[in-house]
Design goal:
By secondary structure, this protein is α+β, with helices and mostly antiparallel strands. It is built from 3 helices and 9 strands, in the order H-E-E-E-E-E-E-E-E-H-H-E.
């Protein structure tokens, strides 16, 4: 008797399972999958007209060692209470410095025609930019504070020091003098061929090897 009753409910059980399956499948259509939304806003802040002719590039590799001792309280030499974490780093930095001439500074009165000769008063060479190549530079023995702000400031200070040293090294090595020489090699034959005249370049500021005071 119980067995016959069981057989009677089998179709109903199958029907309930089928209905449950269809219901869950329908509900899946109302499920919102995980989504990633990225909003990007780009603002043009400034347009700068560039008339600078890059002439010389110096490439550098330097070693920067830095150590920052945190504040110490009751410092008796053999005993003290640390007020933070000491920081130190060794940076192998690679970068470059580039010298150029700003052709936009040439005025109409700077160009003098005299028979078959053209004399041009050129602006003095300048250091266009100097920078550390972050992709080619590496830190070794880096120990920074757990305070993320202090750690970031320490690393930024090291990069800034490396850039400053590259600038000073480029100027001391005579990058501006080399830029003036290169401008004569590049511009003089180009302008002579273009105008079919003899071109003489005069520089308003004659660069010299820059000697910087050591800090």
């Amino acid at each position: 008797m119980n067995f016959r009753l069981f057989l009677k409910f089998i179709p109903w059980g199958i029907a309930l399972i089928l209905l449950a399956f269809l219901w869950f499948r329908r509900m899946s259509s109302f499920t919102t999958p995980a989504q990633l939304t990225v909003e990007n806003t780009t603002i043009l802040q400034e347009i700068e007209a560039l008339g600078k002719l890059e002439l010389v590039r110096y490439k550098f590799k330097e070693v920067i060692e830095a150590e920052e001792i945190a504040k110490r309280y009751f410092d008796l030499g053999y005993f003290y209470i640390p007020g933070g974490q000491d920081q130190k780093a060794l940076l192998i930095a690679k970068g470059e410095a580039v010298a150029c001439i700003d052709l936009m500074k040439i005025e109409k009165e700077d160009i003098i025609f005299s028979g078959d000769t053209i004399q041009i008063n050129m602006p003095g060479p300048e250091l266009c930019y100097y920078k550390v190549d972050l992709n080619k530079s590496s830190f070794y023995d880096l120990q920074t504070s757990k305070d993320k702000k202090k750690a970031a400031e320490f690393i930024d200070m090291i990069y800034a020091k490396a850039e400053t040293q590259m600038k000073e090294a480029a100027l001391e090595s005579g990058i501006l003098v080399d830029a003036e020489k290169m401008s004569g090699r590049v511009l003089t034959p180009f302008l002579s061929n273009l105008t079919d005249k003899t071109v003489i370049l005069h520089f308003k500021t004659i660069p010299d090897k820059v000697i910087l005071q050591k800090r």
